[in-house]
Specification:
The chain has 506 residues and is an all-alpha fold. It is built from 19 helices and four strands. Strands 1-2 form a two-stranded antiparallel ribbon. A two-stranded antiparallel sheet has the order 3-4. Strand 1 (151-154) and strand 2 form a beta hairpin.
């Protein structure tokens, strides 16, 4: 029982920074900010804006982004403090190990694996649909048997849909995996190019779209109200939709929270930052603030160009430009959406091997495999390839609409833990060096916890059930393997990293 709540000493974490098998430090503040923007701007800005505005918020979507952004900003400040203190791979998993103990660290690590794996699979699935829509512009179509997953959920049951597998989703996953194995510098260069393209498209949407705004489209501003609160799926305040889910501004914040997932991925690259104590906090906060401003601006333009109930859910932005007489803009916006989703997929798949790497160093998963660093590329190549295979299989074969809902609840759970961990660390290690400090403690962490819990409870009850099932599987692995091989277990046989990268390759 004592091991379950054993905390990894801060001194051990700091000493590990100079240990064997470390990742190459090549990322500066611009590269880290680019990774954050690459992870955040994608499906959220090109798809979720239409779904939320049409079904749940109306023009009040602007406030929904403010609420979700506040939750993320509070959490981001907490992430930044930890990342400056302990600039190693692992993100919220490592922070939980240092403050809340091994069992909570395992729960968060296992939760993050779910978040990144499902998010990557969902994004690859979405990339495929955007890619197929894009090539249709040029009269090219993917054969039906390779165009989608073979099964889908119809009335709660799996039903064969005709295709064999989603070939574009599989191919893009393989391509991203190859880039990630090649090296972090190549990955961030590729990501930066895509970020520049999609930011240019987003600025085009804002600047040109402003000229076609009709203020009367913003009236009524909140047709579904300003609330939309539920507790474990039971509506507590606000209007109720036809499916029994709450409607309103807060309900919209829960829906579009997926749009913000990704800024925490910057903290996963702490070990590859040139000056992590300074650059990682800059990357986290700068990318989040920039994306929040862009989200609010795009939602204002979208709901101002088109009445909220006339917004096309599948392609809200490109269709809005078509409705105001600019159909040619579809080509440019489709390109921006495609590059945006590609960069999200890259950063999501970049982050998960770093979680495995941190867990492997602690003995909770087999280190000989998950902490293997490529002798030439200096990347966790084995786990990267394994994740690429798993993501491509899920994206190519499975309907991911239900699983995708788990991403929101998993991320919110991680944010709650990181905010709480700041409070614990301030109490237990007040003397620790903090190059970046969360301002107004304990107010900021407590507000982060409160808003994230509010959004978590507003998610459908099925999300909680699926999360509990996933955590149950994780407990089986932890008590079957992790607890016996943990670095905190005095009787465990410790894994020793090879002396050289040549032996590591062997």
């Amino acid at each position: 029982m004592s091991q379950l709540f054993a905390k990894k000493p801060l001194s051990m974490l700091l000493s590990e920074m100079e240990g064997k098998g470390r990742l190459k430090r090549v990322l500066g503040p611009v590269g880290l900010t680019s990774l954050g923007v690459g992870a955040i701007i994608g499906t959220g800005i090109f798809v979720l804006t239409g779904v939320a505005a049409h079904d749940k918020t109306g023009p009040a979507l602007m406030l929904s982004f403010v609420v979700a952004g506040l939750a993320c900003i509070f959490a981001a400040l907490c992430y930044a403090e930890f990342a400056s203190m302990v600039p190693v791979a692992g993100s919220a998993y490592t922070y939980a190990y240092a403050t809340l103990g091994e069992l909570m660290a395992w729960i968060i690590g296992w939760d993050l694996i779910l978040e990144y794996a499902v998010a990557s699979s969902t994004v690859a699935h979405g990339w495929s649909h955007y890619f197929q829509d894009f090539i249709k512009i040029f009269g090219v179509e993917v054969p039906m048997i390779f165009s989608n997953a073979p099964y889908d959920l119809v009335d709660g049951k799996f039903k064969a849909m005709g295709p064999w597998f989603d070939l574009p989703a599989v191919l893009v996953t393989i391509a991203i995996t190859a880039i990630l194995v090649k090296g972090i510098k190549e990955s961030t260069t590729f990501n930066s190019i895509m970020v520049i393209i999609k930011l240019a498209v987003v600025m085009f949407v804002i600047i040109v779209g402003c000229q076609y705004i009709h203020p009367e489209n913003w009236t009524p501003f909140a047709p579904f109200g300003y609330t939309g609160i539920s507790f474990f799926g039971k509506p507590m305040a606000g209007q109720i939709g036809g499916n029994g889910e709450p409607l309103g501004m807060l309900a919209g914040a829960s829906t579009i929270f997926f749009a913000y997932i990704g800024f925490d991925a910057v903290s996963n690259q702490s070990e590859e930052a040139i000056n992590p104590k300074r650059d990682v906090p800059i990357g986290i906060i700068a990318s989040l603030i920039l994306c929040t401003v862009l989200y609010i601006a795009v939602s204002a333009v979208l709901t101002g160009m088109v009445k909220y109930d006339k917004i096309n859910i599948d392609a809200p932005i490109s269709d809005a430009f078509g409705q105001v007489g600019l159909p040619w803009a579809k080509y440019l916006i489709s390109l921006g959406a495609l590059t945006g989703i590609t960069s999200v997929l890259l950063v999501m798949m970049l982050s998960q091997p770093r979680i495995f790497l941190a867990m492997a160093r602690d003995g909770l998963v087999p280190p000989a495999f998950f902490s293997a660093i490529h002798p030439r590329f200096q990347t966790p190549w084995k786990s990267t390839i394994l994740i690429g295979v798993c993501v491509s299989l899920m994206a190519g074969l499975l309907p991911l609409r239900i699983l995708a809902e788990l991403v929101n609840i998993g991320t919110l759970f991680a944010f709650v833990v990181v905010c709480a961990a700041v409070l614990v660390m301030r109490k237990t290690h007040p003397e620790a060096e903090r190059p970046f400090k969360v301002p107004f403690v304990p107010v900021v962490p407590i507000l982060g916890i409160a808003i994230c819990l509010l959004l978590m409870f507003s998610l459908p009850a099925e999300n909680w059930v699926r999360l509990i099932v996933w955590l149950g599987i994780g407990f089986l692995i932890y008590f079957g393997y992790g607890i016996r091989h943990s670095v905190m277990n005095p009787s465990a046989v410790k894994y020793v990293a090879p002396e050289s990268t040549d032996s590591l390759a062997e």
